[in-house]
Write a structure and sequence with these properties.
single chain, globular, alpha/beta, about 20% strand
């Protein structure tokens, strides 16, 4: 974990409780909060940040879900002072709480006797505002016994904690029960925590077994003095699986189940180059024959990797047994060329076409050419060819358009259902490719328009943000470290060793010169390295995207479904780990490319509206009002039983997910605001 590693807190007076407590979607406010005039509670969270990883993790969850928040930097000498005027005021004669929830580094972040501490507690008491203590230790001030009174403290790596009955009935009802703390590197401590026995007023949501019998709490709600705190007594950062599993529940508890923003668990897998063969890694040359930089090969390559009819049958059976649909990103012309070169028949194409309805299909161009600049291959690496005047030569609009059109028509002719608005170009070509091609092919946007393409795939490792290409928008895809040019686990491990081992250990040394990479301590055993090292690592990376509310697809290649079918162990691991963690009410969402594009586009518009201060949202009693700029849809989450007001009457709001209801929503016809009615207790 290196810079993200969690260390034991050094001063108990400086740390305090974090979060996971009962989702009180229909919470009854404290007696002090009940007034003749119901207060207005603005749907914004106050985050008091000390620079620690725990507060940073919660802030990242809020931002990633689209929940608006205001951050106060405790280390800034010019920060605003938290007093009554900062926290509340009156609007149109109605008392207003400016923040629906408060995140603190720990329970005494301002000092236990400070004026700010007193003002914040009075505010929370008056308006019924919940507080998350991001990371604290086990002590009576947060409703727990000291750890030497039947509790425990220490390294949590590999520990399996459990969601309690109260947790599942409350904010963590989307979890199946067991939450295991990561232990990715046995040589370092990745997480530390305190487990304490609950005292009066404390309800545990996540606990663990302790020596001597019984269980002690790691996350729970402490209710005292007319206030509620969510207490978390283990350290974490935004990337660790235990936090990612609990993050949704922390936000639901913090916002009492009513907030702007929404969260899903997305997983889509694109299989590129379907119908085409992929060149094979040469374990002797340490390169791929046919690549420009593969010195010593004949330029052709031998024995390419291509699926067979049996591989296609296996893919269909795997989909059915796993309950997961793959996206087949196809090159029809490559299949036709293969058929011509192999006696006029192709059992693979016949099988995939017969099973066409079992997959989703995406246009990958007809023959997979490079569609950017005209490549000059006389140098290594290649460069863009230029005319006699020094102008870059580009693949023409007509060729680009023909590659898109012909592949679409080929699929239609085979009875394959394909959406013409979606496109993945070969190697994401046509888009800028650094360093050789720093701009898009100027003919690309026109060719996309010619064919009705609205959603163009890009490589997330190069361009993680969505952007416009003419009238189309990109859809960034995560590359998986399951290489396109291998058919066996041994080949995969061999190439992995070449990339991730030092020159001294026989590798390329790329890992030594790339600051974003880390060299292996020793080369992997090619017989066992894929199963023992690469599979768990790649599954962990993919699952981190799933748990991070990231809709971007992952992409692999048809070669990974061929021969030893090395993709399936990774996907099986991702699916098994996810389903072991989450309850049936929180299924994986498997969006197609255009749906991902729409989601990213909506998020960008929403984030812009929030940044410009153009969103107003608040709750008065059981009524929620949301106002956003025209044309901007708002993500909203609310409890089951919530209804959306129409011009005449109302309708059930949103879609059920993770025990709540949520949706991108906009005002109805002739309305200027979104109005929701929450269920009564």
């Amino acid at each position: 974990m290196d810079s993200d590693r969690i260390r034991t807190p050094r001063n108990a007076s400086k740390i305090a409780a974090l979060a996971a407590a009962a989702l009180l979607a229909t919470v009854v406010p404290s007696a002090q909060a009940v007034a003749a005039t119901a207060p207005r509670i603005d749907l914004t969270v106050l985050v008091v940040d000390d620079g620690g990883s725990a507060v940073g993790a919660i802030a990242a969850e809020l931002k990633g879900s689209g929940v608006p928040f205001r951050r106060i930097d405790l280390n800034d000498p010019n920060r605003p002072v938290l007093d009554t005027a900062f926290l509340s005021d009156t609007v149109d004669g109605r008392p207003r709480a400016k923040y629906q929830g408060v995140v603190l580094p720990h329970e005494t972040a301002f000092g236990p006797d400070s004026a700010e501490h007193t003002a914040l507690q009075a505010y929370e008491r008056t308006f019924g505002i919940p507080q998350v203590d991001a990371y604290t230790w086990s002590h009576p001030g947060v409703g727990l016994d000291y750890t030497d009174q039947g509790g425990w403290s220490g390294v949590l790596d590999g520990t399996t904690a459990g969601v309690t009955a109260a947790g599942q009935a409350g904010p963590f009802g989307y979890l199946k029960g067991a939450v295991t703390f990561e232990d990715n590197d046995p040589s370092i401590a990745e997480g530390y925590g305190y487990a304490g026995r609950p005292r009066a007023g404390y309800t545990s949501f996540l606990d663990m077994p302790v020596e001597g019998g019984g269980r002690a709490s790691l996350v729970g709600e402490y209710a005292a003095d007319g206030r509620r705190e969510l207490v978390v007594t283990f350290a974490y950062n935004q990337y660790q699986r235990q936090f990612r599993a609990l993050a949704r529940g922390i936000v639901e508890w913090l916002t009492q189940g009513v907030h702007l923003g929404q969260n899903r668990s997305y997983l889509s897998v694109h299989v590129d180059d379907v119908f085409a063969p992929d060149a094979r890694w040469d374990t002797a040359l340490n390169c791929t024959p046919g690549d420009f930089d593969c010195v010593g090969d004949d330029g052709e390559g031998v024995n390419p990797v291509r699926m067979t009819a049996a591989d296609a049958q296996y893919a269909a059976a795997w989909q059915k047994s796993s309950g997961f649909t793959l996206d087949m990103v196809y090159n029809g012309g490559q299949g036709e060329q293969w058929k011509t070169e192999h006696g006029g028949t192709d059992a693979l194409t016949a099988q995939l076409v017969a099973d066409r309805a079992q997959y989703r299909w995406i246009n990958h161009t007809y023959t997979h050419p490079f569609l950017g600049c005209v490549q000059d291959n006389t140098t290594v690496p290649w460069r863009c060819a230029k005319d006699t005047s020094g102008n870059t030569l580009w693949v023409s609009r007509s060729e680009l358009s023909g590659q898109i059109r012909n592949n679409h028509n080929w699929a239609v002719g085979k009875g394959i259902s394909v959406d013409r608005t979606e496109l993945v170009t070969g190697e994401h070509s046509g888009l800028r490719t650094l360093p050789q091609q720093p701009v898009d092919n100027p003919n690309l946007a026109g060719a996309l328009a010619d064919n009705g393409v609205k959603w163009l795939a890009s490589d997330n490792s190069r361009e993680p943000q969505q952007r416009a290409v003419g009238a189309a928008l990109t859809v960034p895809r995560h590359p998986m470290n399951v290489y396109y040019n291998v058919g066996t686990a041994a080949e995969m491990a061999d190439e992995y060793n070449w990339i991730y081992t030092s020159r001294a250990d026989g590798g390329s040394g790329i890992c030594e010169s790339n600051p974003a990479s880390t060299c292996l301590p020793a080369p992997l055993d090619t017989a066992t390295g894929y199963a023992e090292h690469i599979v768990p690592q790649e599954a962990r990376t993919a699952l981190s995207h799933v748990l991070g509310n990231d809709p971007r697809p992952h992409y692999v290649h048809q070669s990974n479904l061929a021969e030893e079918r090395i993709l399936y162990p990774v996907l099986d691991r991702v699916l098994a780990d996810y389903r072991a963690l989450f309850a049936a009410n929180t299924p994986l969402v498997n969006p197609r490319q255009k749906d991902v594009g729409t989601e990213l586009s909506r998020r960008a518009a929403w984030d812009k509206a929030l940044a410009e201060g153009k969103v107003t949202a608040y709750r008065v009693g059981n009524t929620v009002t949301v106002k956003a700029p025209s044309g901007v849809t708002a993500p909203v989450t609310a409890p089951e039983g919530t209804r959306k007001q129409l011009l005449l009457g109302s309708t059930v709001f949103g879609t059920a997910y993770a025990g709540t209801r949520s949706a991108w929503t906009a005002p109805e016809l002739l309305q200027t605001a979104i109005t929701l009615t929450l269920p009564t207790a």
